[in-house]
Each structure stands twice: as structure tokens, then as C-alpha cells.
Amino acid sequence: MSTLSERETRDAAPHRIGLWHAGVVVSTKTESPTGRSIVLDVPGWGGNIAGQHADLRLTAADGYQAVRSYSIASVSNGDRVELAVDRLPTGEVSPYLVDELRPGDQLELRGPLGGWFVWTPSLPGAVQLIGGGSGIVPLMAMIRSHTASGSDAPFRLLYSVRSPDDAFFRSELDTPTPGLDVTWLYTRVAPEGWGRPPGRITVDDLAGSAFAASLSPAVFVCGPTGFVESVATALVALGHDPHKVKTERFGGA
Amino acid sequence: MAVISRGFTGRGRDHTPDLPPGQYLTADFPVLSAGPTPDIDTADWQFSIRTDDATLHTWNWDEIHALPIEDIDTDIHCVTRWSKFGTSWRGVSLDTLFADIETTDGFVMAHSYGGYTTNIPLDDLLGGKAWIAFEFDGEPLDPEHGGPARLLVPHLYFWKSAKWIRSLEMMPADQPGFWEQNGYNMYGDPWLEQRYW
Amino acid sequence: MGEHVDGNSLAGPLSELFAVDLTMASARCLGCGDVSELARAMVYPDPTGYVVRCSQCDDVLMVVVQEPDSVCIELRGMAWLKVPR
Ligand SMILES: Cc1cc2nc3c(=O)[nH]c(=O)nc-3n(C[C@H](O)[C@H](O)[C@H](O)COP(=O)(O)OP(=O)(O)OC[C@H]3O[C@@H](n4cnc5c(N)ncnc54)[C@H](O)[C@@H]3O)c2cc1C
Ligand SMILES: [Zn+2]
């Protein structure tokens, strides 16, 4: 049974090898003071499933190249790809993507990549999503896939952000969606009158708001490496089967 | 046909005179790790040199601090193409540590806490060219940058300056260390761009 | 600081070399015997390559160095790699 669904996931995960596709920026949207989403048109892309990522390659006029990975926020069968990027002030690529890139600009993408950190509507059972900062991106794709397919798998999201302004996809997440339960966690600044004082995610937050280990949900955790490690440790302490916990570390915070 | 991304220049890559070929200057101190950062208490820390006759010369944290400590001002060059000018360190010269050691072996394997290894000719460690460093920029060397103590061999690419240094093992012939087994140059001179085999 | 990422991020670089998604393959660690998908391993990236370590015991499973004209892959810590088809 589980082998069958894993097999389906794998078959559903498109895997086109090694090729770089030219992409053109269609639009950008400010998501937070430090982040924005970017929609690209990538002829020949051919779609992706929820949770996959792309490698982005930027080439400077003198031929210098830089490659970074970005999760895909969109789910489609077509050539549109939506990314969302948070600026790392000392970074080489993310400040360019957040501050400089504009419609009509070109870059290259490779993918869709990864058949492991993915969710498809054919997977049965409860799903717990846990995201920190820009770690919402692949989880957003899973939420969109869940909504679009009418899947009746119960979904819960725990989304940890510095302050209310730092949330990506805020209005979409604030729109009530059947079968999706969203819990916000604020690490620095909480809205006026918010019950929980600002602070990093704890075992108690997980015990209080996430699906219990006894329901054996599929758990997807994504965000900065430090965030993912503390959540994964806490989940195992709460009795979650490590095999049901999948992680996507984005690297240094 | 190349796809150029308008406005993308990449991290400052202007060539600066006094830099080895292919290097760019950075003001930060990028962290590159081949593995998890080991957590080493200075109370348990030991550094040793093992010679051909299997004699072990060992210093603990207090013992190494009792030796003459030098201030080192030097440029450093990483194989991943960043260089940093005028870094300041404090540590003990390997001339001091090798002072009482007799050996006929010409090569050294540096071993780190955490299992990392790198090979260096003995001549490159002597003559005021290498140190066991435990301070950077006036502060104790932090674990991400190799603390409590790292090897410092600034005239070679920085992967030779093994973080979390634990011991030096004398070898009669040159043997490849961790990166050297996988394609990095056995010697690693930045001025000759000796990056790969 | 913890800069390492999941083995899942190897999907792109490995797609230059292999026709299947190797991150879905399972490897047996020589150090501790753990069998996991490569996607679960820990990857320490740097611009010239990466070190892939067992998520259970931190032993090195694989080292990849990208040289200008070739890619050097060492599979020092794996007893085997089982690739789904
Ligand atoms: C699978 C995956 C998905 C991700 N998804 C997102 C996302 O959806 N949104 C988001 O904001 N971030 C995401 N990230 C993080 C993203 O890839 C970048 O690390 C981040 O944007 C910072 O990049 P930078 O160039 O600004 O910073 P930098 O500090 O310049 O680089 C960041 C990291 O890239 C690596 N690196 C540096 N130089 C090179 C090089 N020459 N070649 C290859 N690697 C190098 C290093 O490990 C470094 O730690 C994801 C990361 C991974 C692994
Ligand atoms: Zn292991």
C-alpha cells in the first residue's frame, strides 16, 4: 500500500535530465519587506508537482555564473513557474532576485527537481505542513495542489514568521479553505492581543497545534536549516515516526 | 546562445593586484565545512604530533598557551576563489612545536576533530610559515571557523589550514587527505592556481 | 549556523550525470548500516563540490568535486546504492 503510493508519486514526478531552460520574468510581487514572488514563463518546462524545486542559473555579461536552488510555489502542467525568494543581505543571488529582477529579464532554470519532498493528490491520509520564513514556498504548492484537486486529505499548516508583515502569501493563507487549518507563530513581533508571546517554535506549539503522532500524518518541514533541525527533533520527541517526516533545509538562516 | 541575466554581476569579482590569479577579495569570512561543527571543550582539547617511531608529543590547552604566542598578520586564499587581506591571528608557531622533535619523514597528515584530514610537506610547516592558531581578530576562534584551534598555513589554499586541528602525523611519503583524494591538488599553491590534480 | 541542506537538493547537480533521480535511490551506510534514500542524507555544499553524510552517523557517504572538465564522484561510505526503476 505504501509502496504503491510511493510508486505513484515517483511516476508522477516529471524528471527531465540535465537541461537548462531559458525563462522570462512575467511578473513580480512584493510579499514582505524582504521577499517577493516571481512568475516566470519557461518554454518547454512542462509542469511540476507540489514540493519540487528548480535550480536557477544566472549569467553575468562577462560569463560569470551562479547557481542556486529555489522551491516552486506553483503547481501546473504548463510552462508557468512561480518562485518566492527571501533576501539574504550578504548573499550573492537573492538580493538580485528580490531587488533587481524585473519583467522581461531572462534567467535559466533546471528541473523540476526532486521526487522525494513532494505531495500528490493520490496520497491518502493527514498532512502536517510546518514552515519557517521562506520555507512556506513548497508547502504553498502542496496547499494549492490540495485545493485544486479537491483532495479530502486533512491538511494543517504551522507557519512561523518573524512578524505579521514577514509572511509570504498572506492573503491567500488568510482566505478560509475547506480541509486546511492554518496556525500562525510569530518569533519577534506578534499582532496586538495575540495569545502567544513571540518566540521560536517549541515542542508545546507542535503538541498544541499539529496533528498528533497517533494519527501518523505525513509531515513536511521546510525553512532555514536551524528551524528545520529544531522542528524535526521536537517531532521525533513527540513520537512521530522519523520515516513520515520529510525535510527541506534551505541553508543558513 | 548564452542567456544573460540583465543587471546580474555576481559577488565583486574585480581583479585586485596582489591577489593570486582567479581570486576575488571579500570582506566577510565565508564558512565552508565538509561536515558538522564539532563541539570541543578546551578542557578536553589535545594537540599531538606523532612521529615515525610512534612517539606521541602531546599538548593540552594550558600547555600550548604556556609556549611563546605570536601575532600573525596574513592574507588568506580559499580554493572557492575568495581571498581576504590582512587577517589577524594569534597562535603558536609550528617551529616551536617541532623544536624538540626528531624526524626523517618529509610529509605530514593533519587530522582534525570530526575526521577531516589534509596532507602538507613538512617544509611548508616550518620556517615561520605555519601556526596552531586559537585567536582570530582578537577573539577566541569560534567553532565555525575551526575553534578552539586550527592549523594556519596561509601560503597554501585555505583547505590546508585544517579546522579543529587535533594531530599531525609524520609520513615518509606524501599521501592524499580528504579533499586531495577527490581531485584537489596535493600541494595547493594559490599563486600557481593548483586547485585540482 | 548550520549551512547544510538535504540530499534532496542533489537532484539538480546529479541530473547532469544520471538519467534517473538518484535522490530516490537508497544507500546503505558503511559506518552504521542505516539504509535511507539519498534525499535524506545531509549535504555540505560548497562551490567546488559537496560532501554527503549519513543522516544517522554523520559518516561520509559520498564526495563530489566539480572540476572544470570533469566531475569526480567518490562513493567511499556506501555498501550499495539501490536505484528504483
Ligand atoms: C532545495 C532548496 C530550495 C530552496 N528554496 C528556496 C526558496 O523557495 N526561497 C528562498 O528564498 N530560498 C530558498 N533556498 C535557499 C537558496 O537556495 C539560497 O541559498 C538563498 O537564496 C541564499 O542565496 P544567496 O546567493 O543570496 O546567498 P549566498 O550566501 O551567496 O549563498 C547561499 C548558499 O549557496 C551556496 N553557494 C555559494 N556559492 C555557490 C556557488 N558558486 N555554487 C553553488 N552553491 C553556492 C552556499 O552553500 C551558500 O551557503 C532553497 C535552498 C534549497 C537547497
Ligand atoms: Zn551511517
Across the major sheet of chain C, the strand order is 1-4-5-6-7
Strand content of chain B: 25-35%
Assembly form of the protein? heterotrimer
Ligands in the model, by name, code or SMILES, are: flavin-adenine dinucleotide, zinc ion
Description:
The complex is a heterotrimer of chains A (253), B (197) and C (85). Chain A has two domains: 7-113, Elongation Factor Tu (Ef-tu), domain 3 (Beta Barrel), CATH 2.40.30; 127-250, Nucleotide-binding domain of ferredoxin-NADP reductase (FNR) module (Rossmann fold). Chain A is 23% helix and 32% strand. Chain A is built from six helices and eleven strands. In chain A, β10, α6 (225-237) and β11 (245-249) form a beta-alpha-beta unit. The longest helix of chain A has 14 residues, at 136-149. Helix content of chain B is 5%, strand content 31%. Chain B contains two helices and eleven strands. In chain B, strands 1, 4, 5, 8, 9 and 10 form a six-stranded mixed sheet that branches. Chain B has a five-stranded mixed sheet with strand order 3-2-11-6-7. The model of chain B has no long low-confidence stretch (mean pLDDT 93). Chain C is mainly beta and 85 residues long. Helix content of chain C is 6%, strand content 41%. Classes of the chains: A alpha/beta (253), B mainly beta (197), C mainly beta (85). The interface between A and C is medium-sized, with 27 and 25 residues. Bound molecules: flavin-adenine dinucleotide and zinc ion. Zinc ion (ZN) is lined by residues 29, 31-32, 34, 54, 56-57, 59 of chain C.
